[in-house]
TrEMBL record:
GO terms for biological process: monoatomic ion transport. It is found in: Cell membrane. This is Molybdate-anion transporter. GO terms for molecular function: molybdate ion transmembrane transporter activity.
Length: 505
């Protein structure tokens, strides 16, 4: 067990930091409520708006965290199941991963469009069904079934990355929460999603490790994920309303659009125009390029880190790397703990910028600066990983990479939420993911080799790509954020600094 100490020590060192930073707000808020009688004076419409905002947050997060928990239970063990339990070659594992992202690339242009047309809730329910079938496929030893399962997983990825966030943003706008001066802003929702999701992933990683130790098979976390998918589907059926394009949904509620063929044709025409206008927006092209670079390199990291850590252990100890029994769930929990610290840093910086600086400046330039900074630092971390000599150095570089990931996720989500129109949000998100899937496919086709020299080249390539993306994002997005009206206003980012509330964690 001594050889595994660095991962347990890392987790024990990170968890107090996560608890301290995340819990600080809750403690301060409770003290403020107990000593500040002014909060008791909040009555009428404001109290009702706050209650609606909290109900919306709870309604979304309880479903979102269940489906993400299912994914996090399985993620750390997929590579190990294929390599260690099914004894597939590195080349075959790469082919299975490629099947996932090839399918995702094929369906990316269509899943978002179908979600906008037939409903985002329906798309989320479809994800639960597809993800469950994909999980069941790992029980089989037959290559065709494993390939089919990975292909279903690819469809699931496109739904997971488009439908849930699209439902949340559209529902947030439809309820008028941002314009109602509630304490939960849209940027706060992105920060809350990332923070809660990372804490969720920490718990899922440790739980998956315990399940594997108790039951003896690395396929057992996949079966536990089935129960979470089923619970999420039941909650969606009970608590979520369907939404499509916000323009059409709001018009239907107000009785402004009739059910005639002419009205339907007008809605389709408006949706198509919005979609085409979005795809011609230079900022959306920049975001697609940035997300392809960052998220693609993170996928390569997830594919490479088990072998990289094993090889570093072998190099430092002189033992065969197959003797290294990595606690995959614990390492994954470390990664997620680092990621949640990055997300909390985003929350804190955004809150302080709203309270200390000119709000019209902070809400337009700071997210871009944070996005570019996370890309730049991630590139430097990949350089450090490429030249790391010991297992500990490599592990620390990976932790820092995940911290950058934690800051990147709410930053890019803020940019997407600000730029993309609600009427075609899921469609645009799906198309924006297409370059990412193509990038991952091309990268996976080069990862059949399993040697350290090959991983060194991959890490150097990732570093260069991220440094380029950092420069492009800073130049391309900064110039368009001067308050000239070409951005879609994000509900909740008010011009009045006095309306800023304490950040919700």
């Amino acid at each position: 067990m001594a050889e595994l100490d660095i991962y347990w020590i890392g987790l024990l060192a990170l968890l107090p930091g996560v608890a301290l930073v995340a819990g600080r707000k809750l403690i301060l808020r409770s003290l403020k409520r107990s000593t500040d009688p002014s909060e008791k004076d909040i009555v009428g419409d404001q109290r009702q708006r706050e209650a609606l905002a909290k109900d919306f947050r709870r309604t979304f997060l309880q479903v979102y965290l269940l489906v993400m928990g299912s994914e996090w239970l399985q993620g750390p063990y997929l590579y190990s199941v294929l390599r260690d339990e099914k004894h597939l070659s590195p080349n075959m594992v790469a082919i299975l991963y490629t099947a996932t992202y090839s399918t995702a690339a094929l369906f990316a242009p269509f899943t978002g469009i179908l979600a906008d047309r037939f409903g985002r809730r329906a798309a989320c329910l479809t994800f639960c069904a597809i993800h469950s079938l994909s999980s069941l496929s790992v029980l089989s030893e037959a290559i065709p079934i494993l390939v089919l399962g990975r292909m279903l997983g690819g469809v699931g990825i496109t739904l997971l990355w488009t439908a849930f966030e699209s439902w949340m943003v559209t529902e947030y706008n439809a309820r008028g929460l941002g314009f109602g001066q509630t304490a939960i802003r849209l940027s706060d929702m992105f920060g809350i999603m990332t923070t809660a999701n990372c804490i969720n992933a920490i718990l899922a990683g440790v739980l998956a490790h315990c399940v594997v130790l108790a039951l003896g098979s690395k396929t057992d976390p996949f079966m536990l994920g089935l129960a979470l998918d089923a619970g999420a589907a039941l909650l969606m059926l009970r608590t979520w309303k369907e939404n499509r394009g916000v323009g059409a949904a709001m018009a239907v509620m107000e009785g402004e659009i009739n059910s005639t063929s002419e009205g339907v044709s007008q809605r389709k025409s408006s949706w198509f125009r919005d979609l085409m206008a979005s795809l011609q927006d230079r900022r959306i092209l920049i975001l697609s390029m940035v997300s392809s670079c960052f998220e693609g390199t993170i996928f390569l990291l997830m594919f490479c880190w088990p072998g990289a850590l094993k090889e570093a252990y072998s190099r430092g100890s002189g033992r065969d790397q197959d003797s290294k029994l990595l606690p995959y769930g614990v390492i994954f929990a470390n990664f997620m703990a680092a990621m949640v610290l990055g997300a909390l840093a985003f929350n804190i910086l955004m809150r302080r910028s709203r309270s200390l600086a000119d709000p019209s400046c902070s809400t337009s330039t700071l997210p871009t600066a944070l996005l570019s900074s996370s890309l730049m630092l991630a590139g430097l971390c990949f350089l450090a990983a490429a030249f790391a000599k010991s297992e500990l150095q490599l592990f620390v570089a990976f932790l820092l990479l995940e911290a950058c990931n934690g800051m990147y996720v709410p930053s890019i989500a803020y940019q997407r939420g600000r730029i993309v129109k609600d009427s075609g949000r899921a469609s645009v998100y799906g198309l924006m993911n297409l370059p990412l899937f193509l990038f991952v496919i091309a990268a996976l086709l080069t990862t059949a080799e399993d040697g350290g020299t090959h991983r060194f080249i991959i890490f150097i390539f990732c570093a260069v790509l991220l440094l380029i993306a950092a420069v492009v994002s800073f130049i391309g997005l900064r110039d368009s954020q001067e308050g000239k009206g070409d951005f879609i206003e994000v509900p909740g980012f008010d011009k009045d600094v006095d309306t800023c509330e304490e950040e919700k964690v």
